[in-house]
Amino acid sequence: MAETLIKVDLNQSPYENENIHNRWHPDIPMATWVKPGDDFILETYDWTGGFIKNNNSADDVRDIDLTIVHFLTGPVGVHGAEPGDLLVVELLDVGAKQDSMWGFNGFFSKKNGGGFLDEHFSQAQKSIWDIKGMFTTSRHVPGVQYAGLIHPGLIGCLPDPKLLANWNEREGALIATDPNRVPALGCPPCAETAHMGKMTGASKAKAAAEGARTVPPREHGGNCDIKDLSRGSKIFFPVYVKGAGLSVGDLHFSQGDGEITFCGAIEMAGWVHMRVSVIKGGIATYGIKNPIFKPSPITPNYNDYLIFEGISVDEKGKQHYLDVNVAYRQACLNAINYLTKFGYSRAQAYSILGTAPCEGHISGVVDIPNSCATLWIPTQIFDFDVNPSAAGPVVQNFKGVDMPMSRDLD
Ligand code: ZN
User: Fold this and answer.
1) What does CATH list as the number for 305-381?
2) What is the pTM (predicted TM-score) of this model?
């Protein structure tokens, strides 16, 4: 039995656990050390550290201070890992915490985080998903059941001072182009809510003031939210500091490509069983800038899809030039429209796209002026026939069940 090197108590604030941090900074001390070849278990909070509750109100999604996220477990130091190496991480298994067999999906208010379709879903909404073994269902989104494609949304190694400075400089420059934009263009450092692991005193204050937020994916991986980086996959991370400093969190039971509702997966607290090794000098040997990975040998066996196309003409009819983001948004909106014909609310349909193992593909990027993106919905997740037919959709009786919504306070 692998040893659980870091435990979390879901009844304790993550700020009281010195093996947790919520910023990236080279000075955060290692929470623990392992050797190449070791396998071990790390427990994690959900990304909000327990702020979102298993209830029927979206007030917590509306009210959360998003500068507190993400609560990560680590960093784990790996003996012998040095800058220029690749850290090889095998995700041997990932699961939900036994005392917390549920997860949540949220749409954030446009005024507090927003999301991919926040023009259409501007108020906070939430759905709760129960986890039964390898499957999940929701009391707020009837008619579907998925097998888990369980993965960490966020995993990566500590940056070195130069890389950290580069992040802060380039993101700061972008934010400066429109500092008052809602939602914001980026997430600058925020010392007030920084949790720097074991750090204390003046060194903590300095690091907290410059520690990078965990929101975007960057060269080190970080918050990539790749659904296929699931249990059984093997990841090769660039190492920037002595010991590498591997941290993980933001576990997802299931997610569609794009994590489109922002809090778009089924977010959960859980554990990761992993094994680490090192490829000396691997960054130069393989020309690595961002992580690379091998997928899991085991994925849910969905092989029939209904596929929605979208092009880079937005919902107001405006032509965009080869804009994949616009095209994917149209594919998602087309899928939402379609699912409402079977009795779903627009919110439930959006939630399905965010939480089910939907595939998103960039299908064409050269046929000017339109790029084409496709959204693939696995048909086998529905407990009714969702295919088009001459007879028309059989409207399901969902008995008025819907997702709770909380309107903005002012
Ligand atoms: Zn997440």
Assistant:
1) 3.10.28
2) 0.96
